[in-house]
Each structure stands twice: as C-alpha cells, then as structure tokens.
C-alpha cells in the first residue's frame, strides 16, 4: 500500500510539474488554481473535490497580482498539493469528507509562501542563465543559447516536481495518521472551518472586483453554490 501510494505521489508530482510550467512558458492560465486543481482531481478520479479546492485557493490570493517585482504566493503548487493530498488521504482513510478537505487546506496553505521563495530562487538563477545566453550570443554560439534557453523551463519543472513530492508524501502520512484519531469536537471544528473558507475567499474577491472585473464574482458565486450543494448533500 505504501509503495503504491508513493508511486501515485510521483505521478502527481510529474503532472503537477507539467501544469506549473504554464506559469513561465505558455501562460495559458492552465496553472491557475481554478483549472489546475480540477485537472489534478480529474487525474485522480475526483474532479468535484478539485473544483471546490481550486475555487477556494483562487479566491484566497486573487488580490495578490504579479505586478512589477511583486511575486505572489505560489497558488498553483498549493492547489495541486491540497487536491492530491485530500483525495489520496481520503482513499487511505476509507472515505472522503469535507473535514479532510478543510484539514488539507489548513496544512498546505503555508506551502504557497514557501513556493514563493522557490520562485524567487528560480528567478535569480534564471537571470544568470539569461546573462550566460547573452554571452553565448556575443560569441555566435547558437547551441549555447539554445541550451541556456531550454535549461530554464527544465529547472522550473525540476523545482516544481521536487517541491510537490517533498510536501505531498509527508502531508498524506500526517493526515492519515492524525485524522482517525481526531476527537468529535476537532472534526466539528474542521467542519465549521470548511464553511468559513468560502466566506474568507468571497470577502477577498469582493475587495478586488475593481481589479479583475467579474472573475472573482464568478468564482465566488460558483463556490457558494458548490458549498450549498455540499451542505444539502450532507443532510
């Protein structure tokens, strides 16, 4: 069971690394949480959980725009980690519930800020690669320019892959160990936290309507509808 789960973590890390490449290569918005999380959920057989998690995280940091030198928290890595951990942990525990989702969000939100540091490191390395490519161009070394150009996305993929694998496996181990031992009061607190997340996200979205038009409103309405569906389903 442990070996199979580790192989699944490697597969998730590979797919997550490819998704995160969209942040620097094509930039077609695939790496946005509202898309990345459902893609990961579809890969793991639970797109609905991915939709919920993606909407949560999309709203959490929607006010942090990558303008100028500002590097926002890495919401792509966070969305992938939360989705994969929630689904895989639920399978190991034997059932999937909103308490597991709330707990996964709680333990992985800090990864967004750690991922932010990772991107700062990548940018510093990428600047050195750019200078090396210019040096090769001055020498008419086309192969050198091409290699430096290709090394940049490869580095980002390796960093993203390693980051996901480094945090996903321990997170699943912690969740599957602690969750069955939680008291009913802790489970009730996690259940309440699950319904607090959309309120927090919608509050952030309302504060950014003038920045992103109807996108936060759409995400907020979708998230509210999904939470209501989850609530009535639980009843």
Explained architecture:
This protein has 235 residues and is mainly α. The protein has one domain (2-123, 165-234). The protein is built from nine helices and no strands. It has helices spanning 2-20, 33-43, 47-60, 75-93, 98-138, 142-178, 184-206, 209-212, 215-234. Helix 2 (33-43) runs antiparallel to helix 3 (47-60) and helix 3 (47-60) crosses helix 9. It is globular, with a radius of gyration of 19 Å. The mean pLDDT is 81. Its main location: membrane. Keywords: Cell membrane, Membrane, Phosphotransferase system, Sugar transport, Transmembrane, Transmembrane helix, Transport. The chain crosses the membrane at residues 6-25, 37-57, 77-93, 154-178, 190-209, 215-232. It is a multi-pass membrane protein. InterPro entries: PTS_IIC_man.
- As for the number of domains, it is 1
Order of helices and strands: HHHHHHHHH
Total helical elements: 9
* Portion of residues within helices: over 70%
Q: Tell me the quaternary state.
A: single chain
Q: How would the global form be characterised? A: globular
Q: What share of the residues does DSSP label as strand, in percent?
A: under 5%
Characterize the largest beta sheet: strand count, sense, and whether it forms a barrel.
Answer: none
- Radius of gyration (Å): 19 Å
Distance between the termini: 33 Å
How many DSSP E strands? Answer: 0
Q: What number is the mean pLDDT?
A: 81
Poorly predicted parts: none
């Amino acid at each position: 069971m442990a070996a199979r789960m580790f192989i699944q973590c490697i597969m998730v890390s590979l797919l997550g690394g490819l998704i995160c490449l969209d942040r620097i290569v094509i930039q077609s918005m695939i790496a946005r949480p509202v898309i990345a999380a459902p893609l990961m959920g579809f890969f793991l057989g639970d797109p609905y959980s991915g939709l919920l998690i993606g909407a949560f995280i999309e709203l959490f940091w929607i006010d942090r725009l990558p303008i100028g030198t500002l590097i926002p928290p890495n919401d792509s890595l966070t969305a992938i980690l939360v989705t994969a951990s929630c689904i895989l942990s639920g399978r190991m525990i034997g059932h999937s519930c909103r308490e597991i989702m709330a707990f996964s969000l709680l333990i992985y939100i800090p990864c967004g800020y750690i991922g932010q540091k990772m991107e700062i490191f990548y940018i510093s390395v990428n600047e050195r690669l750019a200078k090396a490519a210019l040096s090769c161009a001055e020498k008419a070394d086309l192969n050198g320019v091409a290699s430096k150009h290709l090394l940049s996305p490869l580095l980002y993929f390796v960093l993203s892959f390693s980051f996901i694998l480094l945090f996903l496996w321990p997170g699943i181990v912690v969740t599957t160990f602690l969750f069955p031992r939680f008291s009913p009061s802790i489970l009730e607190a996690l259940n309440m936290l699950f319904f607090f997340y959309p309120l927090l996200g919608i509050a952030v979205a309302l504060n950014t309507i003038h920045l992103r038009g109807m996108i936060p409103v759409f995400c907020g309405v979708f998230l509210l509808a999904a939470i209501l569906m989850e609530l009535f389903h639980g009843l």
